[in-house]
Each structure stands twice: as C-alpha cells, then as structure tokens.
Design goal:
It comes from Planosporangium thailandense. The chain is an alpha+beta fold and 260 residues long. It has two domains: 142 residues, Lipocalin (Beta Barrel), CATH 2.40.128.270; 106 residues, Lipocalin, CATH 2.40.128.270. It has four helices and 21 strands. The strands form two sheets. Strands 2, 3, 4, 5, 6, 7, 8, 9, 10, 11 and 12 form an eleven-stranded antiparallel beta sheet that branches. The two termini are 25 Å apart.
Length: 260
C-alpha cells in the first residue's frame, strides 16, 4: 500500500485557524518542542470518547510543525502558540484506506487540532481542550520508552521512497538484528544477510554486505532490493519507542518495528 500526502478538507476550521495566525504569536512552545505525546484519555461533551479498538492518538511537535496519528493516516500541519492556544493550520494527510471508523477518527482529530484548543503542560502531561472536547496525553518516553538498537529484532514494515511509503507485501518477512560488535545480521525477505554496522550517534555506516545466493522474484525480490539499498554506506537512524527508521541521504530507506 502506498501513502501520499493530500490536503485535509476542513475549510471552515482552517480559515478560522488562519485568522488566528494573522494576529501573530510565538512559535510552538519550547516545552513541547522535540517531544511526542500519547493519549491517555479523550472526552467529548463531558463523556468518554472511545477510540477505535487498538488505536491511540500520537502527537509529535517538531520545529514549527505537529505530526499526528490516530491509528490510520499520518497527519501533519504547521503549529505555534498564541497565548494559551495551540494554532494548527495547513494540515495535510496521507490517503490510506483504513475503513470508515478509522477515517472518521482521523477527521475528528484534524478538526480538534485545527479548532485552536487551549493547551496546558504539567511536566510530562499535556492537556488540550476545546469547548466540546478534551484530549489528555503523556510524554511518549514515560509511556513507551525507546528500544535499544543493539539486541532488538527489527522487522521491516515499510519501504521509504522519498515522498511515498509502501508497506511490505504479505508473506514477505525481512528483519535486522544489530550486535554489540558492530555487525548486523538478518534477512532481506529472501536471503540471509550479514554486514558491518558502525554507529556514530544518529548515523550508521554499513559496509561489507554479504548475502546468500537464493534466487528471488516478485515481491521478495523487490523487498530485498530495498533492504540492500538502505544498508549502503552511511545512513541516518532514528528510534522512537518500538520503531526504527533507516534513511539514506536521498530520502529512501526502511521503516522497522521491534518484534523481539
């Protein structure tokens, strides 16, 4: 499945948010910057608002932007504060089919964020309020700490292609495991691989990649090609909770999840 960024149709709300932006105000507050929050409670009209089973709202504040996820599409928009209000505008969304419940939850979150909610931060606890709804969240590092790069089995879930992200086809399993001796082993989805992997902060330099010689075709061949391309030379890495991204300078790479 391929995800593309498309505008979220929220004309009335976006116009209102734009009007607030015109009044000026500061950039997003420093206490929120470079932090990710996960929902702990959602209420609407004073009553609990159940989320779709198996989902949780995630908000990431990063350099004048907010990224949001409610279990279906990825949302992203400009973010700043105007006093005690959070102003979110120019919201874009990926366009993945997630069923009516997931899409409705995405639309609700988009409307909530662009309605200019009041915000209050108390340590690791963030509360956003509108007239009708309240969203309570906790810093992700308290709720779901980062997994270590070394010793974790990272299973490939997606292929990053610059502006597009493709999910791994059903029936193909590719994974990586980094060891403390500067090596990575695993599977390309078809062949077994081994390589040197020298970490330096937020980058890893891959070298001397070797793979077995099993013939691959179809989906397995495409996944193997993407895995080997990601493990070439110096790549950026980022770990957030149980997810790892490996990104080449051209934006191509892999999205992986801790599975052991």
């Amino acid at each position: 499945m391929t995800a593309r960024l498309t505008p979220v149709v929220l004309t009335t709300v976006l116009v209102a948010a734009g009007g607030c932006a015109a009044k000026g105000g500061s950039a997003a507050p420093q206490p929120l910057w470079q932090r990710t929050f996960l929902s702990t409670a959602v209420t609407e009209h004073g009553q609990p608002r159940p989320l779709v089973a198996g989902t949780r709202i995630r908000l990431t504040f990063d350099n004048g932007r907010v990224q949001a996820h409610a279990g279906c599409n990825q949302l992203a928009g400009q973010a700043r504060v105007d006093g005690d209000r959070l102003v979110v505008s120019q919201v874009m969304s990926t366009d993945m089919a997630c069923g009516p419940e997931g899409q409705q939850q995405d639309a609700w979150l988009s409307s909530f964020l662009t309605a200019g909610p009041n915000w209050q931060l108390d340590g690791d606890h963030l509360t956003l309020r509108t007239v009708q709804a309240e969203l309570r969240l906790t810093d992700r590092r308290s709720v779901d700490p980062d997994r270590p790069l070394v010793g974790t089995r990272w299973t490939v879930e997606s292929i990053l292609g610059g502006q597009q992200t493709s999910s791994i086809p059903a029936g193909v399993t590719a994974y990586l495991t980094f060891d403390p001796n500067g090596r990575v082993t695993g599977s390309t989805g078809c062949n077994t691989l081994s390589a040197s992997a020298r970490r330096d902060g937020d980058t890893v330099t891959f070298d001397a990649v070797t793979v077995t010689k099993r013939a691959c075709d179809g989906d397995a061949a495409r996944v193997e090609s993407a895995v080997l391309a990601a493990l070439t030379g110096r790549a950026a890495i980022h770990i957030a909770a149980d997810t790892l991204t490996i990104t080449q300078p051209d934006g191509h790479g892999l999205g992986l999840r801790a599975t052991g």
